[in-house]
Amino acid sequence: MDLSSPLDDADERLITGMRRQPRASITNLARMTGMARGTVQSRLDRLHERGVITGHGPELAAPTIGYSVVAFATLSINQGGHDALIERLATIAEVLEVHVITGSGDLLCRIAARSNDHLHELIQLIVAMPEVSRTDTQLALASPISRTLADLLVMRTSNPSSGVRQT
């Protein structure tokens, strides 16, 4: 991803339009943003090429597809096991995210499970990996705020005085 050039106003308007109406056509995006269709298409192509837009898949409500448990597992790992463990974790579909962190652990995983028993099975699978020395798991009881980076952009664009914005 090219981090040297931030998004300009037109890119932000385009992404905001896409977030507000994810299924909008190029013509509708052009109308919403006040840009020509060709401009919208070329900007979208450039945003994809730069790695700014990484997907267009639907967002799903986990409980509606049978995953009512969300947990966060902090993993402490043995030295030298970082890359191998990440490869192993990538093979477990229920491991939705893995972050390299600072603090009392090495990796933070967001895990979706069908039940507490299923979560227990997943944690046992992870603990059995030779690179893992310790885990600490917290269950999410509720998720009152759940945003994407596109939501951040829309909120920042809609209300530039809210929050901290570096220029």
Write a concise keyword list for the protein shown above:
Alpha-Beta Plaits, four-stranded antiparallel beta sheet, 2 domains, Arc Repressor Mutant, subunit A, 167 residues, alpha+beta
How are the secondary structure elements laid out?
Blueprint: H1 9-20, H2 26-33, H3 37-49, E1 69-77, H4 82-89, E2 95-100, E3 107-113, H5 116-127, E4 132-140, H6 149-158
Antiparallel strand pairs: 1-3, 1-4, 2-3
Description:
The chain is of the alpha+beta class. It folds into two domains: 9-58, Arc Repressor Mutant, subunit A (Orthogonal Bundle), CATH 1.10.10.10; 62-140, Lrp/AsnC effector binding domain/regulation of amino acid metabolism (RAM) domain (Alpha-Beta Plaits, 2-Layer Sandwich). The chain has helices spanning 9-20, 26-33, 37-49, 82-89, 116-127, 149-158; strands at 69-77, 95-100, 107-113, 132-140. The protein has a four-stranded antiparallel β-sheet. The model has no long low-confidence stretch (mean pLDDT 90).
Can you count the helices? 6
CATH architect. name of the largest domain: 2-Layer Sandwich
Uncertain segments are none
Arrangement of strands in the largest sheet: 2-3-1-4
Element string (H = helix, E = strand) = HHHEHEEHEH
Helix content: 25-40%
Q: Report mean pLDDT, rounded to a whole number.
A: 90
